[in-house]
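REVIEWER CHECKLIST
Item 1: Sequence provided? yes
Item 2: Single chain? yes
Item 3: Sequence as submitted:
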Amino acid sequence: MEANLRKALSFSISDLMSNRAGILTDTQRRALRAERGDVLIIYGSFIAVVTLVLGAALSTLGTKPLDLPYPDIRLACVIALIATSCHLFYLVGRLNTDLQRGVVHAIEGVVATVIPFADGRRHFLGRGYVQVNRTKFYCARDTLLAFERNAKYRLYYAPRSKVILSAEKV
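Item 4: Structure as written out by the authors:
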């Protein structure tokens, strides 16, 4: 089971040893940079689509009235654009802080997993979460399945972004 967890979280024994000392490894720094890239792509794509819709709505301004079911589509697009941009800066800022500080925190306890669609709830992009002592760590479905249900683990994570870096059963 621990080999499945190492594979799902992509960490080595060397990474685990460094994490026990509270240190972020170079491999884990690359993984956090990749996570930051994924966030930028997902949110950037959404921002681009909203901007295109907003641009199309504004381009008709003055030429003809908008023939849309909701006349306030421009306002809705602007609000969505601002909210998404703020959330993007928030997430990227947290990842950047973790990368700059290079610190790893640990939490120990019984792991409860919530797998998307298994309990009737829907989660963004098929992600669920691992919960330890009221602290939630959102992660991919394959990572969730690597944890043994209701077993006690020590999780090592990036403190600001709450990204699990490594884990061990205790």
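Item 5: Key structural point noted by reviewer: Residues 15 and 26 are 9 Å apart (CA to CA).
Item 6: Recommendation: ____
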